[in-house]
Amino acid sequence: MSKEQEESGFDRRRLLKSAAALGVAGNLPTMVLPASGAERRATSSRARGQVVAVYCPLWHRYDHMDSWHGYGWCEWELVKGAIPRFPGHYQPLRPSWGFFDESDPKWSRREIDLAADHGIDVFLFDWYWYSGVRLMEEALENGFLKAPNRNRLKFALMWANHDWSDYFPAPYDKPWNSWLPSRHSPADLARVIDYCIHHYFRQPNYWTVEGRLFFSIFAPGRFINQLGGAANTRSLLAAIDGKLGQAGLPPVHWNAMTGDPRLVAQLQEAGFRSTTTYNVVYASKTSANLTQEYDDLITSHVHAWKGMAQTSLPYCPVVTMGWDVTPRCERNVKFPFAKTNYPYTHVVVGNTPERFGRLCKLAADFVAGDAKRPPAVFVNAWNEWTEGSYLLPEEKHGIAYLQALKRAWGG
Questions:
Q1: In this structure, what DSSP letter does residue 96 have?
Q2: Of 235, 237, 359, nearest to 297 (Cα)?
Q3: If you classify domain 5-408 with CATH, what class do you get?
Q4: Residue 167, pLDDT score
Q5: Helix, strand or coil, per DSSP, at residue 351
Q6: How far apart are CA 342 and CA 45, in angstroms?
Q7: Are 295 and 10 in contact (CB under 8 A)?
Q8: How far apart are CA 29 and CA 211, in angstroms?
Q9: Cis peptide before 353 (omega within 30 of 0)
Q10: Cβ contact 147:108 at 8 Å
């Protein structure tokens, strides 16, 4: 999915500077565990929160992409055609399972077992709705929800409410071809909720937080502004809770994707109950060849978490496995890119399973020490192959990233 800075609602470089200004003093807090093994595991799981993996449903054929790029085309083609941009650049990626169809429940079954066996509790599906036009829902509706083992994982939705554009690959010197704009209105929001009631909210494994249906918004600033401001949004969300109650369903836990502490007061006024960040991808230092070290990115994560944790809403920290969006770039554009704008950005190097596991452990301990008790740690991502962030097995490391994640949670 697109990560344009204007859609995500904040400038990531400015965020890192402001978060760093808040400081990170001392060691991260740890928790005191009970003596028995069973109690220790149960308490640790509760205190450290659920593990939620972002699921990007791009890896199957669907009608809209057929009409744009030809029958059967999907982003696997960008994975296959990726090229190394500098010495030592690990491209193209080689998925161990091949270029499989995630909308096939047989493949979903394998994904679910792999995730559940390695400590993942929830798949958070990127969900696309454009005034009733839906994209890529087949991965969830035809794959995950029809898998025979689906109850091994919870699932929830993150409404990816950014404009849908052609970045397959993205043009370097031309405006993007915007295919579908994202627009919000009370009437359209009512349609979204009706669709979710019918297709998702009654599912027995839909994820709830404190008895509420978890529902995340990728661009919450756009959402609030187009609904008429925070007060109007809060009234709409309260009316939705009433509608859900009449349908015999619990209310919604609205989650906002943001990394800007300055937005949280408005989000809380609008009725959001928690925040997280879709990804943290910028470190404080960039080399001359437009690369950033994963160790520096770990430091940036902790600064970002600290800044958000000082706000009034619970903040669920996010950890990233990596960042490399060059598969979405035109192959003839020389690296390092003279102009940097998504997807023509830096590449993170030095990410290894060991370092990823260290970041996961920091996030788990961070949640355990937060008095507001955020419900989860988010992982970007299960399968963002064209952004260089994936937990699914790949030829170089196999399932080592998943094993590192499991160990971080005491598995």
A1: T
A2: 359
A3: alpha beta
A4: 87
A5: coil
A6: 36
A7: no
A8: 28
A9: no
A10: yes
Please, what is the average pLDDT of the chain? 90
Sign of CA dihedral 308, 314, 391, 327: negative
Angstrom CA distances, 38 to 35, 44, 367, stand at 9, 10, 20
Question: What would the pLDDT profile of 310-335 be if each residue is shown by its tens digit?
Answer: 999 999 999 999 999 999 999 999 99
Q: How many CB atoms lie within 10 A of CB 67?
A: 10
| Cα torsion angle, 43, 318, 383, 356, sign | negative
Separation between Cα atoms, residue 140 and residue 142, nearest integer Å? 6
Question: What gap in Å lies between CA 37 and CA 57, rounded to an integer?
Answer: 38
Burial 193-218 (b: 16+ CB within 10 A, else e): beebbeebbeeeebbbbeebbbbbbb
- Which structure tokens are listed for 51? 């593990």
Q: What is the pTM of this model?
A: 0.89
Which of 321, 309, 336, 301 shows the shortest CA–CA distance to 381?
321
User: Per-residue pLDDT averaged across 134-140, rounded?
Assistant: 97
